[in-house]
């Protein structure tokens, strides 16, 4: 461990996010802080709303976490609180993320923060394709204040350059990384998970992990599960559905399962902290999102050696090579989700080969160290003293 004096002398980076809770963006931020070289930079996380126990995953000492406690709607006072926080912290660099954080660029400039980075990690249900005139104008207005952009997918990189007007040399595409030691293929029989009777002998588990919000469209997965039994005639005594995560759409999924008489074949346990173990109990991983930046859960499923069925949106095609490591289908298409899952059920050798190729790809291209090194290169380049002409 580095001496306290050395840590205190390191430049400070403030990471501005909406809320520190379970989520892909938040998981990526914590992985980044945990894997950057100790002592190069100090870190503080400023949450526009608040934070949960999820922050306990941070392994680096001395990371201050601050809540601005922004209220719903227009809370003009939160701008003053954010400005005062930045003045107190006096960071070398601020790194804002997504639409909710981009206004922090203006407050940071007013507070004298010299280096400013903005990352785009994905969109929400209000603007699935980045076409909202209001949000485009806001990003274009703040664009001159941003020293560098980071996009987690090629789709977002092209959008920042082509639609928002960011200069190509000021945009870097950095994919997420995954812990391939924690997420690894099943080494024996699946662990006993779920309530009594959920995992039967020779169960075939269709799984998904994520925030159960409208943009993730887990309802389409539940509809596909119903179709697999009602139309594809897959056996009830084998088929199981597991969706780990919580959110406003969880109850609608439970209601549909109950109406179809399939609730005893499904387990929707809410938020869990044993995702690696749950994934090793799955036979196929499904992500039915309406939009994505770069999905951490797809990477985790690939690292686990699972074939992946995902929608062909956002950064998903960057990760899932359809017909090679998984299958891509259109969004909002339960029937095509069911067809793709049925193929893997009927052809276990195909599922195994796609899963093996996915893990090999993760090991070669999506390590946490590679991700941290790419972010570090951006931070170091901005922090480097300007070169004087000789």
UniProtKB/TrEMBL annotation:
Pfam families: Glyco_trans_1_4, Glyco_transf_4
Recorded GO MF terms: glycosyltransferase activity
Record InterPro entries: Glyco_trans_4-like_N, Sugar_tfrase_PEP-CTERM_Stp2
Origin superkingdom: Bacteria
Keyword Plastid attached: no
Keyword vocabulary terms for this entry: Glycosyltransferase, Transferase
Sequence ranges assigned to domain Glycosyltransferase subfamily 4-like N-terminal in this UniProt record: 22-179
Record flagged with keyword S-adenosyl-L-methionine: no
Annotated NCBIfam families: stp2
Database matches in PANTHER family: D-INOSITOL 3-PHOSPHATE GLYCOSYLTRANSFERASE, GLYCOSYLTRANSFERASE
Protein name, per record: TIGR03088 family PEP-CTERM/XrtA system glycosyltransferase
Source organism of the structure: Rugamonas aquatica
């Amino acid at each position: 461990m580095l001496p306290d004096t050395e840590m205190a002398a390191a430049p400070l980076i403030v990471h501005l996010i909406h809320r520190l809770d379970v989520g892909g963006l938040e998981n990526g931020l914590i992985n980044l802080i945990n894997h950057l070289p100790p002592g190069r930079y100090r870190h503080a996380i400023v949450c526009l709303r608040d934070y949960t126990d999820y922050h306990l995953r941070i392994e680096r000492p001395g990371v201050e976490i601050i809540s601005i406690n922004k209220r719903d709607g227009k809370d003009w006072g939160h701008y003053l609180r954010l400005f005062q926080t930045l003045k107190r912290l006096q960071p070398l660099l601020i790194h804002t993320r997504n639409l909710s954080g981009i206004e922090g660029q203006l407050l940071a400039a007013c507070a004298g923060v010299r280096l400013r980075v903005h990352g785009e990690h994905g969109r929400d249900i209000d603007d699935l394709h980045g076409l909202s005139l209001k949000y485009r104008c806001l990003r274009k207005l703040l664009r001159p204040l941003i020293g560098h952009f980071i996009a987690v997918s090629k789709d977002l990189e092209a959008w920042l350059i082509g639609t928002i007007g960011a200069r190509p040399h000021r945009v870097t595409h950095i994919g997420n990384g995954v812990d391939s030691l924690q997420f690894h293929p099943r080494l024996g029989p699946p662990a006993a998970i779920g309530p009594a009777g959920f995992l039967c002998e020779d169960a075939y588990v269709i799984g998904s992990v994520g925030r159960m919000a409208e943009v993730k469209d887990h309802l389409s997965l539940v509809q596909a599960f119903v179709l697999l039994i009602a139309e594809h005639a897959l056996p009830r005594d084998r088929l199981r559905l597991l969706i780990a995560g919580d959110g406003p759409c969880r109850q609608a999924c439970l209601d549909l399962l109950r109406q179809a008489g399939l609730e005893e074949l499904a387990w929707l346990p809410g938020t869990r902290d044993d995702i690696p173990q749950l994934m090793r109990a799955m036979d196929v991983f499904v992500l039915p999102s309406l939009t994505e930046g770069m999905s951490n859960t797809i990477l985790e499923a690939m690292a686990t050696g699972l074939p992946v069925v995902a929608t062909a949106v956002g950064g998903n095609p960057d990760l899932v090579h359809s017909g090679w490591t998984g299958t891509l289908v259109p969004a909002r298409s339960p029937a095509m989700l069911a067809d793709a899952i049925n193929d893997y059920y009927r052809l276990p050798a195909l599922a195994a080969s796609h899963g093996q190729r996915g893990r090999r790809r993760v090991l070669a291209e999506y390590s946490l160290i590679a991700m941290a090194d790419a972010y570090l290169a951006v931070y170091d380049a901005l922090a480097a003293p300007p070169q004087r002409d000789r």
